[in-house]
Design brief:
Radius of gyration: 18 Å
Structural class: mainly beta
Distance between the termini: 48 Å
Strand content: over 45%
Helix content: under 10%
Strand order of the largest sheet: 2-1-6-11-7
Order of helices and strands: EEEEEEEEEEEEEE
Number of strands: 14
Number of helices: 0
Largest sheet: 5 strands, mixed
Length: 169
Amino acid sequence: MGKAGVEPVTKDCFCYHHLQNAAHGKVQIIRVNSIPCEVDVSLPLDEVKSYTLYIDIRDPRVLVCFDGDIPSGGLPKGSSVLMTLPVVSGMATSPLTCHIAKAYKRRGENEDPLRYIVTGDTARQLIKRHFILLKSGRAVFRKYRETLQPVYLIVDVHNGVAEFSTSSY
């Protein structure tokens, strides 16, 4: 028995991921110690062996990792961004680049401004990796295609499971 009659949690905990240039899925979280609750997350196809996060595994929210941006109003109330890292060369993915002729162009003035940087004849989109605890409900994130076109990722969280769908469905 732990503090105040709470028993240690022995259930499996997962990190649901949707990474750039990789299939979405889930990985099991490995508990390092209980005070503070330190866990390690190892993602597929990632040269970084593991990410150390400090979370209480009794927290009912779901851990989600993705590469991209969080648009304004994209997170439901009660969600927490645990860590944001730039995705740089040497990790599973690097910043997206393409020739400026193939880069996505705005279709109208009502679209959000483009986020890529043009250097010479190359367009480059910086990518960030986010680790977020999400409450039940729906979150919206922004990912990018090879042409740097934004694609919105919808994450539905219910009963401790995260399901991904994109705006292209």
